[in-house]
Amino acid sequence: MQIKQISVFLENNAGRLGEVTGVLARAGVNIRAISIADTADFGILRLIVDNPETAMKALSSEGFAVRATDVAAVEIQDSPGSLAQVMELFQTSKVNIEYLYASLSSKSGKAVVIFKLEDHEKGLQILKENGLSTVELF
Length: 138
Prior knowledge:
Number of strands: 7
CATH topology of the largest domain: VC0802-like
CATH architecture of the largest domain: 2-Layer Sandwich
Low-confidence stretches: none
Radius of gyration: 16 Å
Oligomer: single chain
Distance between the termini: 13 Å
Mean pLDDT: 92
Helix content: 25-40%
Number of domains: 2
Largest sheet: 7 strands, antiparallel
Strand content: 35-45%
Order of helices and strands: EHEEHEHEEHE
Shape: globular
Structural class: alpha+beta
CATH class of the largest domain: Alpha Beta
């Protein structure tokens, strides 16, 4: 199972992140996971939200450059070594991870790790074959 991630291109200026979160709040969109990678001039904000379509429309209408990407959201135990086990599966299977970030699921009390994989379909298959749960909502 895959999930939609929203990426937002942001100039590295004071207040831009606040503008994005304000737009989403006014649209009634809940942020479930968030990550930002930045340089001196710009950043890429990555979000998992409860309603990607509404988020995309709201941000686009406010002039933000947005894009949706398929990612894998994997539910793991919130305990030492759980992430290492998943990483070993990908390493052994030679699945390249472009990036990852994590959140906690209030429903299950588990960690949810969001993976952007170079070979998305192969990565999903590896997870399924090894009994790992991917989630669509958390």
